[in-house]
């Protein structure tokens, strides 16, 4: 119709008069245009050695960790292994923790594999998903042989799976917390692979303690790749003491003089910059300086985050949003101040410091929509953006050639989380975000601003020493009985009434015999005790590895059944989260 400039009405008239015949044909929504494929960027000697070692180890075992430092070129090693699997006529699943990553990796995969690569994530529409689903069930030359996807792609109907690559295996986003099914895609992928007797490569520069422990206890194989591709140097990391900087009056808004100076020099040399702040929005709360009132969500026990660009206050848990008022709700004072800082505020401050440079922000607010990520990533690759500010999204495996400096605005809120994994996460995050710097000939620099420069974690970060980090923390896990030495199950008890929630939780605890598991912690209200008008209480069970899954399940299910059988508790919702990482 387009080429003849006609309308469907004309076409149907022509058909009626039998001048033309209409034939229906399926056209793919998800297949890329057939394109010329290229040979893969050749492996350097270290990559070749790593590839050969993986291939050899995976002949006699099924799971291998590729422990390679940031920018060591793990992707090329995966690609070579994928070619090996494809040559056997089998399918490959390549899982990454974040949609943002698929946009960069898909380009690299399509260069080598053309339209044999399919992509699968939550931003596809239903029709696109159905098409992927259907094409996978038949495994022939005309369909996808490689799926690049996020965690949900483990549920696709593979027919002849040969290998699963789990990139950035340490990432928390592999865990689906809510809603059910609550699963960790990495662990589930290992089960999926066993159905097909398929091989697994877990890749990371900062493996999870569990995975590394599995290597040491000979459950998994490991191959190490400790040099960067092209023998480029690891970035040099420096710590900036915020307390000192404030005392010496060397702070400009949230930037130390030192960090600002280095940003300035990098911009002068046309180098790009990535800045990390793990909060989105302008500021996490606003406060009335007169009466101390902080606007809170009406559905959840949290303060509302201020989004300045929209003049809105919104709840990051339930989405409740109100517009910002100029005066305090309680005392009508106009003395309202934004406290703390998020990515939006950092962006505003930088714009004032560097008005002639292009500054962009990558967080949940700027990447909505199907092409939100790819536009930003493309613009940064094309050097249209000088400084990119982002949340966790910028830390995960993105590969940019021209980044000279990476800055972490505040490392303290990474380490102060109430979670036994806080240090593991903090270490991984700092090493990963640092790894975005200097991925070409010129070595990159990393600056970390903190109020606690003597925190022991920085010793491991500064020296890029995973081994020393692991040794220290695995001992703590053993001493205090945390995974991988026990398994954890978190039970959530939920109800609209705080009292009923508490009573049900108290009863449940009395019904579980600690000797049947190992230890019970709680019940306790979590840091945010009410979300969307529902109160929650947590019970954490530590389960000894000596006890079978079946036995554990019976213990817990029996206890829960007795609680909800009570008339008062019939509307209490009880959820179990196994391995609630
Ligand atoms: Zn007030
Ligand atoms: Zn809320």
Entry summary:
By secondary structure, the chain is of the alpha/beta class. It is 33% helix and 22% strand. It folds into three domains: 45-230, P-loop containing nucleotide triphosphate hydrolases (Rossmann fold, 3-Layer(aba) Sandwich), CATH 3.40.50; 232-282 and 341-475, 3-Layer(aba) Sandwich (Rossmann fold), CATH 3.40.50.300; 486-578, 2-Layer Sandwich (Alpha-Beta Plaits), CATH 3.30.70.
Description of the structure:
- This protein folds into three domains: 45-230, P-loop containing nucleotide triphosphate hydrolases (Rossmann fold, 3-Layer(aba) Sandwich), CATH 3.40.50; 232-282 and 341-475, Rossmann fold; 486-578, 2-Layer Sandwich (Alpha-Beta Plaits).
- Helix content is 33%, strand content 22%.
- The protein has 17 helices and 27 strands.
- A seven-stranded parallel sheet has the order 3-4-2-5-8-1-9, with helices on both faces.
- Strand 6 (175-176) and strand 7 form a beta hairpin.
- The N and C termini lie far apart (54 Å).
- The chain binds zinc ion (2 copies).
- One zinc ion (ZN) binds next to loops.
Output the radius of gyration.
26 Å
Q: What class, by secondary structure content? A: alpha/beta
| Helix content bin | 25-40%
Uncertain segments of ≥5 residues (pLDDT<50)? Answer: none
Q: Tally the structural domains.
A: 3
Major sheet: order of its strands? 3-4-2-5-8-1-9
Number of strands: 27
Topology:
Layout: H1 8-16, H2 45-60, E1 63-68, H3 74-86, E2 91-95, H4 99-113, E3 117-120, H5 126-137, E4 146-149, E5 161-167, E6 175-176, E7 183-184, H6 185-196, E8 199-204, H7 209-216, E9 221-225, E10 236-241, H8 242-247, E11 251-252, E12 255-256, H9 257-268, E13 272-276, E14 285-288, E15 305-307, E16 312-314, E17 321-323, E18 336-339, H10 343-353, E19 359-362, H11 372-381, E20 387-390, E21 403-408, H12 412-415, H13 422-434, E22 445-450, H14 457-462, H15 466-479, E23 486-495, H16 498-511, E24 518-524, E25 530-531, E26 534-544, H17 549-564, E27 573-578
Parallel strand pairs: 1-8, 1-9, 2-4, 2-5, 3-4, 5-8, 10-22, 13-20, 13-21, 19-20, 21-22
Antiparallel strand pairs: 6-7, 11-12, 14-18, 15-16, 16-17, 23-26, 23-27, 24-26, 25-26
The structure holds zinc ion (ZN) (2 copies).
One zinc ion (ZN) is lined by residues 288, 290-291, 293, 328, 330-331, 333.
């Amino acid at each position: 119709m387009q080429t003849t400039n006609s309308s469907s009405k004309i076409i149907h008239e022509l058909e009626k008069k039998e001048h033309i015949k209409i034939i229906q044909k399926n056209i793919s929504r998800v297949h890329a245009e057939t394109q010329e494929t290229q040979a893969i960027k050749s492996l350097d000697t270290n990559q070749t050695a790593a590839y050969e070692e993986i291939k050899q180890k995976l002949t006699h075992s099924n799971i291998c960790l590729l422990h390679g430092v940031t920018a060591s070129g793990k992707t090329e090693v995966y690609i070579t292994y994928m070619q090996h699997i494809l040559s056997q006529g089998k399918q490959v699943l390549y899982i990454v923790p974040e949609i943002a990553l698929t946009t960069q990796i898909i380009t690299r995969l399509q260069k080598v594999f053309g339209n044999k690569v399919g992509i699968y994530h939550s931003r596809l529409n239903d029709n696109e998903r159905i098409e992927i689903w259907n094409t996978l069930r038949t495994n022939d030359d005309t369909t996808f042989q490689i799926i690049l996807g996020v965690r949900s792609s483990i549920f696709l109907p593979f027919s002849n799976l040969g290998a699963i690559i789990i990139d950035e295996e340490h990432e928390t986003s592999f865990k689906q917390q809510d809603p059910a099914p609550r699963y960790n895609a990495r662990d589930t992928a290992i089960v999926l692979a066993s159905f097909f007797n398929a091989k697994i490569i877990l890749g990371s520069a900062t493996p999870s303690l569990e995975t590394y422990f599995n290597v040491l206890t000979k459950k998994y194989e490991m191959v190490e790749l400790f040099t960067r591709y092209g023998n480029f140097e690891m970035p040099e990391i420096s710590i900036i003491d915020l307390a000192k900087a404030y005392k010496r009056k060397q702070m400009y808004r949230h930037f130390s003089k030192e960090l600002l100076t280095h940003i300035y020099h990098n911009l002068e040399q046309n180098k790009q910059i990535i800045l990390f702040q793990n909060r989105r929005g302008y500021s996490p709360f606003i406060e009335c300086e007169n009466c101390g009132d902080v606007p809170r969500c009406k559905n959840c026990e949290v303060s509302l985050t201020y989004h300045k660009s929209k003049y809105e206050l919104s709840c990051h848990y339930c989405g409740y949003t109100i517009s910002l008022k100029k005066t305090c709700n309680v005392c009508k004072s106009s003395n309202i101040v934004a406290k703390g800082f998020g990515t939006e505020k950092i962006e505003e401050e930088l714009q004032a410091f560097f008005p002639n440079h292009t500054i962009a922000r990558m967080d949940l607010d700027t990447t909505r929509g199907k092409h939100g990520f790819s536009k930003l990533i493309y613009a940064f690759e094309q050097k249209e953006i000088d400084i990119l500010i982002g949340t966790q999204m910028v830390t995960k495996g993105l590969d940019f050639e021209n980044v000279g400096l990476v800055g972490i605005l505040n490392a303290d809120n990474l380490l102060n989380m109430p979670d036994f994994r806080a240090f593991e996460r903090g270490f991984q995050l700092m090493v990963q975000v640092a790894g975005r710097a200097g991925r070409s000939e010129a070595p990159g620099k990393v600056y970390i601003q903190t109020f606690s420069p003597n925190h022991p974690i920085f010793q491991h970060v500064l020296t890029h020493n995973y081994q020393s980090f692991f040794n220290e923390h695995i001992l703590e896990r053993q001493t205090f009985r945390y995974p991988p030495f026990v398994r954890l199950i978190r039970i959530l008890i939920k109800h609209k009434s705080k009292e009923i929630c508490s009573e049900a939780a108290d009863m449940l605890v009395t019904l579980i015999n600690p000797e049947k598991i190992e230890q019970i912690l709680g019940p306790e209200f979590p840091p945010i005790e009410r979300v969307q008008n529902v109160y929650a209480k947590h019970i954490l069970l530590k389960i000894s590895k000596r006890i079978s899954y079946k036995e554990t399940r019976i213990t817990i299910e029996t206890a829960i059944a007795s609680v909800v059988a009570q008339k008062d508790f019939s509307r209490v919702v009880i959820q179990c989260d196994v391995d609630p990482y």
